[in-house]
Write a structure and sequence with these properties.
This protein is mostly helical. It has one domain. It has six helices and no strands. Helix 1 packs antiparallel against helix 4 and helix 1 crosses helix 5.
């Protein structure tokens, strides 16, 4: 799988979570979905910022697109941090997640319609495959742990569950 295919797969996964939120959730399901959204977006942003974007950073044709992408990541991270303190499934929570989803949709559109096609023009298939392997490795071996980027309030639940399992 090349880098773009991997990142698009992440986009689809997050879209599925937000679609479930839009369909209405109980507090328990909302909490689970938010945890998944938070985790997936955190891992995705980290691999983009630490692996994918730097691989493009030396090429002037990507400068403005990458500047926008970093800015959009920062905005969503801040908003997710605020939602972490809201009651899952509440009207306020649902409205805030809806706003975040609109911003993420814009980010996805920018990547899939502008950044990724430009990557396919500039990078060879081999480079994209190697980069895909690097992204996958970063996600699996370095980042995809239970407590990575756990929103406040959720880490305590994980600790309690871990203590009960012991």
């Amino acid at each position: 799988m090349d880098a773009i295919e991997l990142l698009e797969k992440d986009h689809d996964k997050v879209e599925n979570y937000f679609t479930q939120v839009e369909q209405g959730v109980t507090p328990a399901k909302g909490k689970m979905l938010f945890k998944n959204i938070y985790h997936e977006l955190s891992v995705h942003a980290i691999v983009e910022e630490q692996v994918f974007y730097p691989s493009l950073g030396g090429k002037p044709e990507f400068k403005d697109l990458l500047k926008d992408a970093f800015s959009e990541h920062a905005e969503v991270k801040q908003q997710l941090g605020e939602v972490a303190f809201m009651e899952p499934g509440s009207a306020e929570w649902t409205k805030a997640l809806g706003k975040i989803w609109k911003e993420i949709q814009h980010h996805i559109e920018d990547e899939e319609e502008k950044l990724f096609p430009k990557c396919r023009e500039v990078l060879s298939e081999k480079e994209l495959k190697v980069l895909g392997a690097e992204l996958k490795e970063a996600k699996i071996s370095k980042l995809d742990s239970e407590l990575l980027s756990m929103p406040l309030g959720f880490a305590k639940d994980a600790e309690i569950a871990g203590a009960q399992a012991s």
